[in-house]
Specification:
This protein is an all-alpha fold and 213 residues long. The protein is 84% helix and 0% strand. It has helices at 8-36, 40-70, 78-105, 114-140, 145-171, 177-212.
């Protein structure tokens, strides 16, 4: 099936936008790992990197929106594309905000939970990476959207499972309740990346059906 856009510039901008999202998710996972490794230098590096990528994604999204209106491109799909970009942007926004909260609040997470937080982060970001691939397919190869959307739902459910298991373990320790709540807060925020990806997948499924009619 033909690509959605005929404009090479617009196609390049969207590729760059999706690249920034994908790289942001990779940086997020590395940042989480460096936090538990107590590698402050690497953690600071990844904080700066994810902020830069999030700002780049915002800039590209605004440029794409401007071009869509300025040059009256794809008027029949413009609303769906704008909504898709906005909700995709939420994925990297959540990743950036979550990593920065680790820096601000410095949660004291017992070593026994470190690997489980990392696994949750990886799984949540797997959902994010699949929604990036689904979006690429939406713009270039519509028939492949469903395969990636299906994987988003799988990883989101897996992140839910891992997150719930982690929270149960946290609340079955003898830590103070305030500390348990603090750790639950961070588990929930790490998991939210997959929730944001699922939200985009729901919308993308509808947009894909509309384009195929």
């Amino acid at each position: 099936m033909r690509a959605l856009f005929n404009s090479k510039k617009l196609e390049n901008q969207i590729d760059q936008f999706l690249d920034a999202l994908s790289q942001g998710l990779i940086v997020f996972v590395r940042g989480i790992k460096s936090y538990f490794d107590e590698d402050k230098e690497d953690f600071e590096h990844y904080l700066k990197e994810i902020s830069k990528l999030e700002a780049e994604a915002d800039k590209l999204r605004r440029a794409i929106e401007n071009d869509l209106y300025t040059f009256s491109l794809i008027p029949e799909n413009r609303g769906d594309v704008l909504a898709l970009l906005e909700h995709l942007d939420n994925v990297i926004d959540t990743a950036k905000e979550t990593l920065h909260q680790f820096d601000v609040e410095v949660p004291d997470i017992p070593l026994e939970f470190a690997s489980k937080f990392v696994k949750l982060a990886e799984t949540s970001c797997d959902a994010g990476q699949e929604i990036v691939q689904a979006a690429r397919a939406f713009f270039k190869d519509l028939k492949n959207v469903r395969d990636h959307v299906h994987k988003v739902y799988f990883y989101e459910k897996e992140a839910d499972r891992l997150g719930n298991h982690l929270k149960k373990e946290i609340f079955r320790t003898d830590m103070k309740l305030s500390r348990k709540i603090h750790l639950r807060y961070f588990a929930t925020h790490v998991e939210t990346i997959s929730d944001d990806a699922e939200d985009v997948a729901d919308r993308l499924s509808i947009y894909t059906i509309k384009r195929m009619i």
